[in-house]
Design brief:
Elements: H1 2-28, H2 32-59, H3 64-86, H4 98-115
């Protein structure tokens, strides 16, 4: 059971990051319909990913490191949503998304390092 959840969860993460990049590129190219479609698929993947992550946490009896990783993953999903919602094709006076991108990079690096077992305690 754990192996099935793990394989689907890790595969979904890869697809999710790819869909996020595609959505952002479509947004910057000025194609709102394509961005909306990929963002809706991305949101479906968020839900499936959260469910598979919770399943793994239940199977492993909630180890602290993976609970922290789950919280970081929720932060990462939140940053992806903020970046896509706040990044519009704008003129010079629009709001900056640099802080969201910084948080996205930090959360992504931490989640990947915990998943690769480079960070552990």
């Amino acid at each position: 059971m754990y192996n099935m959840l793990f394989q689907s969860h890790s595969g979904l993460w890869e697809i999710t990051i790819l869909l996020f990049i595609i959505s952002f590129i479509l947004l910057k190219m000025g194609k709102p319909k394509g961005k909306k479609i990929t963002q809706m698929i991305l949101r479906l993947f968020y839900v499936i990913m959260i469910i598979s992550g919770l399943g793994m946490l239940i199977t492993l009896n909630f180890p602290w490191l993976y609970v922290i990783k789950g919280i970081l993953a929720l932060w990462l999903i939140w940053m992806m949503e903020l970046i896509l919602s706040k990044s519009v094709v704008r003129k010079e006076s629009g709001p900056s998304t640099k802080s969201y991108w910084t948080q996205f990079i930090i959360a992504l690096v931490l989640v990947v390092l915990i998943a690769a077992k480079i960070i552990s305690f």
